[in-house]
Design a protein that fits this description.
alpha/beta, disordered C terminus, globular, single chain, about 210 residues, 6-stranded mixed sheet, Nucleotidyltransferase, domain 5
Length: about 210
């Protein structure tokens, strides 16, 4: 079951009234929430998942679309602003982003890397832990198979969330899988942890410099 569905890039997230109780429980901190992102400049999928004693619940999913005719900075700004809205709306404990596979055509990977950058910025500005997950780690977490097919991942995501119909668009389905993987993961290095380590290292350096 998914409590809210957002498939356009501009309209607000609206919870179905009959599910408001579950959403309020999640937002009150009684359930751990993660927002997963499937990064892309034209289509940036997202999925909001909560985990409680009874398993996983899909709170929202959708796709942030940007206009191909717009300037890239404007498109990145739109994704950043909508990511900020999602974080404010759901107050997640984790943001999970699938890492980029750098193939020979690095030019095509650059826009996706820039999207990842603005998503990380939105998370850090809200002091939310960021987890960068490889495609293999997402597949392994969701299905138990590191080389699972895209169809297998989508079907298991649907099953874990108790959804009767396949998730659309596919970008949102990938994002939900990423959110589930984050909630299942315990030891994956996060941006927040690395940021803390860097801050501590800087403090140690300043202390040593003074002495």
């Amino acid at each position: 079951m998914c409590l809210t569905v957002q498939t356009t890039s501009d309209s607000k997230l609206n919870a179905y009234p009959k599910n408001r109780g579950t959403i309020m429980k999640a937002q009150s901190g009684k359930m751990r929430i993660a927002i997963g992102f499937d990064s892309g400049l034209a289509n940036c999928g997202y999925g909001v998942v909560a985990r409680g004693g009874s398993g996983f619940v899909c709170l929202a999913h959708g796709n942030i679309r940007t206009d191909s005719d717009a300037q890239r900075p404007d498109r990145l700004l739109k994704i950043y602003q909508q990511a900020m809205e999602l974080i404010t709306e759901w107050n997640p404990s984790k943001i999970s982003i699938e890492s980029v596979y750098w193939n020979r055509n690095q030019k095509s990977c650059l826009p996706t890397a820039e999207v990842i950058g603005v998503l990380q910025l939105a998370a850090v500005q809200n002091d939310v832990e960021v987890m960068m997950l490889s495609p293999q780690s997402v597949k392994s977490a969701v299905t138990g198979i590191s080389n699972a097919s895209k169809t297998q991942v989508m079907r298991m995501t649907q099953k874990l969330l108790g959804m009767k119909k396949p998730v659309t668009p596919s970008h949102a389905a990938d994002a939900l899988g990423c959110a589930i993987a984050a909630l299942l993961s315990r030891n994956t290095p996060s941006l927040k942890h690395k940021r803390t380590e860097a801050k501590n290292a800087k403090s140690d350096y300043q202390i040593n410099e003074r002495t």
